[in-house]
TrEMBL record:
Its EC number(s): 2.7.10.1
UniProt GO BP: cell development; ERBB4 signaling pathway; negative regulation of apoptotic process; neuron differentiation; positive regulation of cell population proliferation; regulation of developmental process; regulation of signal transduction
Boundaries of every Protein kinase domain copy: 664-931
Membrane-spanning parts: 598-621
Gene name per UniProt: ERBB4
Family: Belongs to the protein kinase superfamily. Tyr protein kinase family. EGF receptor subfamily.
Keyword S-adenosyl-L-methionine: no
Main subcellular location: membrane
Membrane disposition: Single-pass type I membrane protein
Cellular component GO terms held in the UniProt record: basal plasma membrane; nucleus; receptor complex
Protein's name in the database: Receptor protein-tyrosine kinase
Organism of derivation: Oncorhynchus kisutch (Coho salmon)
Length: 1041
């Protein structure tokens, strides 16, 4: 059960008996005190056992000026300290003894108090209190910087620690004459890993981080109290919000589990006397919102215009921590036109000011009623004075309350007592004003009702039996017959009177001012508004009575003009009238005249102006054109353009082969992407009989001009590059959909290849691949090309010993003076990119070195995924913290250190591709020293025909019918021009023989014979230029030639 606290500090309501009764009535069966728990001025004989039910206090606990010997707050576990006594203390215990006696507070029953979230502790001047200094206050107070102020001065002979059964630590919350308790220490004994409290000294004994005051287990439902909010027994950081985000629809949706924040609790419904502001229960709306009620629920909504004027009465001057103004002659004028008071209104000499009640303890002698509050309609009771929302105490001059507008007391009790002249109070039906069943009325020691009747201080005869607030027909709670505003009347002015009315039930409502008053004893109107008049006073416009017909009134489309007929009804003017009318015709329009000549003159004049302007524009354009031609002629005749800054760069003499669409045949789709589709195809050169397997990349028809430009840029780059380890561009077909024709790599990409043949790939082959990729990238670096997308998926396998780099779609050529390239937005392979590329989109040859290191890691892990399981958005933070890809199991520290050097943050600290090629060449001479692979010496090089990708290419065409592109283009590589349009007969590659003593076929070069370098002196005499080209195409590492 939740109950409201008080804020009276040391003041008392009346006598000690009433003080005790109010305390008991307020906190009996209470578990959570929403506010302050103030126990003051209670004598020694009182039964305080009802305080045992209190488990939590949101404000402060004040125990002062009492005479009892034992404080039975045995189940209190947490004091939140949202409000503090004197702005410093959450727990204040002082002056609890009687000066002329030997009794006072001796024992603190706070044996379960384990948490004070805010504020300190003040214990002082308790003469008979024992062992208060043995309490481990530092374990209870959460703020370690707060030093508890405990003065231990006892005049009572206390048991010393040797006589007690206290804990070994000498810490006890309650020291009594019966067996001593053990201290429930829950913070200072916890393991370092615990966020807050614990229920034991071990790491597994930590309480949940949302727990306060200790716990019985590690879950959020095992907490004794919650640090933030309690949601149906579970401690949470915040209550379920009214709206939740749906990641599927990308919309905020209503949360069926939504709850409101009420103190430290999550509730499905706010108390009726609180206001809902978004997802919280508040006492008052903020300044930019106003309070409205919908379906009996008060809520705060944003003001559409100026918010209702409100005034806040603050604390009065006094010896308390804060002070402010009271209502007096110096500031009473500030309350002019005030419609709502956000706070408390008090009329007494000295006192403190909680929020939400009306407290009258002092009143001027010349005022015999409370008529200054005649417009007060509701007492909210969001904060109470000792459980009371309406208090009128000891006012000798008040004879009547006169609160005629009061229709609701939302919370709290009514206490009206000791007012010797007060009458009419006994006629009021107080329970009809209450909203809750537990609200009570305490009225006593006022003037005897019989004396009031004798002096004719009774309700007006026009009042009903519900009672009245004072004399006269305007003080009735309800009228016996009819009411006009606040005044009760016996009849309405239906047929007579200066102002005519109609009866809406028992309420007399005034007719509209545009209704004509009837003189024939008939009704003037039968409902409110100008459309319910029996007869109009002036004019009738449709169903409404108006003072005059509309004349220039703004309508939905245009202005409205109407005229009055003889029967005073308004009718619309002609649609062409712009200044009103006196009748329905066009001739009746005000200001109407024959405008035909004027219109004709205007048309002719307008045409003349248009002709003059057109001629002027034509002459001006002609003169500018002639001037430009003359300037261009002079420039061409006299000016010579000379190079200002010659770059010295050699011309790009690469040849671009333009293919006809009839030379190409598409066979099957190999893959597709955002801009195009890649087909397996056959190229049959015009006039020849050879068939060359090719890959045809076709741009999608739906792509725009920018994609065409990027497609041709890729063709430019590929045509400009010619290297054994770069995929070669065979030609371009400029059909309606642009087609790039490249070599067809029969074994697919290197990533799939190493994953498929990981059990047959040895150290020699892996290191040879590292060399070939490094030499290909070294070639690109020499030609100032930044690849930007180097990865194992972009390296293709022509044969097991020959790989080629492809995918120049992201590559960019640097100008002669450029050292870096700054990219635009778009998707990027984050896990393969250097840190400067991710942060600044800055690409250099050294950023390609980083990607090379990741590519080598993919090979050494046989197709492993870099940073697998880590979201892409977390990669930059991970790299900045120094984390890198782990060392592959087969790599020695020498190989892994080469990778690590590629991943240095400083780009200039990374090795060059020339250095990388040399380093891996050195390792390839002794591969088993640098890569440790189980059964490496027994591994057999994979057969070129074993690849799944290779087999899929053979599904449509037979191998013996095709010629390799390299074989077809070899003569062109050595500047041997082929015979123009001369048919060539296909020679079976299996039947080719060379006149040289040694036959170096690509398959022979794939054998272990060439796993180690051969001296150049042995090969040079034997190799013709044509054979040398075949060796390079077959994949023999360059360092071996």
């Amino acid at each position: 059960m939740i109950c409201a606290g008080t804020e009276n500090k040391l003041s008392t309501l009346s006598d000690l008996e009433q003080q005790y009764r109010t305390l008991r009535k307020y906190y009996e069966n209470c578990e959570v005190v929403m506010g302050n728990l103030e126990i003051t001025s209670i004598d020694r004989s009182r039964d305080l056992s009802f305080l045992r039910s209190i488990r939590e206090v949101t404000g402060y606990v004040l125990v002062a000026l009492n005479q009892f010997d034992y404080l039975p707050l045995e189940n209190l576990r947490i004091i939140r300290g949202t409000k503090m006594y004197e702005d410093r203390y959450a727990l204040a215990i002082f002056l609890n003894y009687r000066r002329d006696g030997n009794f006072g507070l001796r024992q603190l029953g706070l044996k379960n108090l384990t948490e004070i979230l805010q504020g300190g502790v003040y214990v002082d001047q308790n003469k008979f209190l024992c062992h208060a200094d043995t309490i481990h206050w530092q374990d209870i107070v959460k703020n370690a910087r707060v030093s508890p102020l405990v003065h231990y001065v006892s005049l009572f002979p206390c048991l010393d620690s040797s006589q007690s059964n206290a804990s070994v630590m000498g810490t006890c919350y309650i020291v009594m004459l019966f067996p001593f308790c053990l201290s429930p220490v829950t913070k200072t004994v916890c393991a370092e890993q615990c966020d807050g409290r614990c229920f034991g000294p071990w790491v597994s004994n930590c309480c949940h981080r949302e727990c306060a005051g200790g716990c019985s287990g590690p879950k959020d439902t095992d907490c004794f109290a919650c640090t933030n909010f309690n949601d149906s027994g579970a401690c949470v950081t915040q209550c379920p919000q009214p709206h939740v985000y749906n990641p599927t629809t990308f919309q905020l949706e209503s949360n069926p589990r939504a709850k409101y924040t009420y103190g430290a609790f999550c509730v499905k419904k706010c108390p009726h006397n609180f206001v809902v502001d978004h997802s919280s229960c508040v006492r008052a709306c903020p300044s930019n919102k106003m309070e409205v009620e919908n379906d009996r629920i008060k809520m705060c909504i944003a003001c559409t215009d100026i918010c209702p004027k409100g005034t806040l009465i603050l604390h009065c001057p006094g010896p308390y921590p804060t002070s402010a103004q009271t209502v007096d002659s110096s500031n009473i004028d500030k309350f002019t036109n005030c419609t709502k008071i956000n706070g408390n209104l008090k009329w007494y000499v000295i006192g403190c000011v909680p929020v939400g009640y009306l407290n009258i303890q002092s009143w001027p002698e010349n005022m015999t009623d409370l008529s200054v509050f005649s417009n007060l309609a509701t007492i909210g009771g969001r904060a109470l004075y000792s459980g009371i929302s309406l208090l009128v105490l000891k006012q000798r001059w008040i004879s009547s309350l006169q609160l005629q507008s009061l229709n609701e007391i939302s919370a709290g009790n009514v206490y009206i007592t000791n007012n010797s002249q007060l009458c009419y109070y006994n006629t009021v039906n107080w329970t009809g004003l209450f909203r809750a069943n537990n609200q009570k009325v305490l009225i006593r020691n006022n003037r005897d009702p019989k004396e009031c009747t004798t002096e004719r201080m009774v309700c007006d005869p026009l009042c009903s039996d519900a009672g009245c607030w004072g004399p006269g027909p305007d003080q009735c709670l309800a009228c016996r017959y009819f009411s006009r505003g606040r005044i009760c009347v016996d009849t309405c002015n239906l047929y007579e009177g200066e102002v005519r009315e109609y009866a809406n039930g028992s309420v007399c409502v005034e007719c509209d001012s545009q209704c004509e008053r009837a003189d024939d004893y008939s009704l003037t109107c039968h409902s409110p508004g100008p459309d319910h008049c029996v007869k109009c006073l002036h004019f009738k416009d449709g169903p409404n009575c108006v003072e005059k017909c509309p004349d220039g009134l703004q309508g939905a489309i245009s202005f409205i003009f109407k005229y009055a007929e003889a029967n005073n009804e308004c009718h619309p003017c002609h649609s062409n009238c712009t200044q009103g009318c006196i009748g329905p015709r066009l001739q009746d329009c005000i200001g109407m005249m024959d405008r035909t000549p004027l219109i004709a003159a205007g048309v002719i004049g307008g045409l003349f102006v248009v002709v003059i302007v057109a001629l002027s524009v034509a002459v001006s354009v002609r003169r500018k054109s002639i001037k430009k031609k003359r300037a261009l002629r002079r420039f061409l005749e006299t000016e010579l353009v000379e190079p200002l800054t010659p770059s010295g760069t050699a011309p790009n003499q690469a040849q671009l082969r333009i293919l006809k669409e009839t030379e190409l045949k598409r066979v099957k789709i190999l893959g597709s992407g955002a801009f195009g589709t890649v087909y397996k195809g056959i190229w049959v050169p015009e006039g020849e009989t050879v068939k060359i397997p090719v890959a045809i990349k076709i741009l999608n028809e739906a792509t725009g001009p920018k994609a065409n430009v990027e497609f041709m840029d890729e063709a430019l780059i590929m045509a400009s590059m010619e290297h054994p380890h770069l995929v070669r561009l065979l030609g371009v077909c400029l059909s309606p959909t642009i087609q790039l024709v490249t070599q067809l790599m029969p074994h697919g990409c290197l990533l799939d290849y190493v994953h498929e043949h990981k059990d047959n790939i040895g150290s020699q082959l892996l290191l040879n691949w590292c060399v070939q990729i490094a030499k290909g990238m070294m070639y690109l670096e020499e030609r100032r090309l930044v690849h930007r997308d180097l990865a194992a998926r972009n390296v293709l396998v022509k044969s097991p010993n020959h790989i080629k780099i492809t995918d120049f779609g992201l590559a960019r050529l640097l100008d002669v003076n450029e050292k870096e390239y700054n990219a635009d937005g778009g998707k990027m392979p984050i896990k393969w990119m250097a840190l400067e590329c991710i942060h600044y989109r800055k690409f250099t040859h050294q950023s390609d070195v980083w990607s090379y290191g990741v590519t080598i890691w993919e090979l050494m892990t046989f197709g492993g995924k870099p940073y697998d399981g880590i979201p892409t958005r977390d990669i930059p933070d991970l790299l900045e913290k120094g984390e890198r890809l782990p060392q592959p199991p087969i790599c020695t520290i020498d190989v892994y250190m080469v990778m690590v050097k590629c991943w240095m943050i400083d780009a200039d600290s990374r090795p060059k591709f020339k250095e990388l090629a040399a380093e891996f060449c050195r390792m390839a001479r002794d591969p088993q020293r640098y890569l440790v692979i189980q059964g490496d010496d027994r591994m057999k090089l994979p057969s070129p025909n074993d690849s799944k990708f290779f087999q899929s290419l053979l599904d449509e065409e037979e191998l013996e019918d095709l010629m390799d592109a390299e074989e077809y283009l070899v003569p062109h590589a050595f500047n041997i021009p082929p015979l123009a349009y001369t048919p060539r007969t296909r020679v079976d590659s299996n039947r080719v023989r060379l006149s040289s003593p040694l036959f170096f076929s690509p398959f022979l070069l794939s054998s272990p014979l060439f796993s180690s370098p051969l001296p150049t002196s042995l090969l040079s005499p034997l190799l013709s230029p044509l054979l040398l080209s075949s060796l390079i195409s077959a994949g023999l590492p360059t360092h071996q030639l």
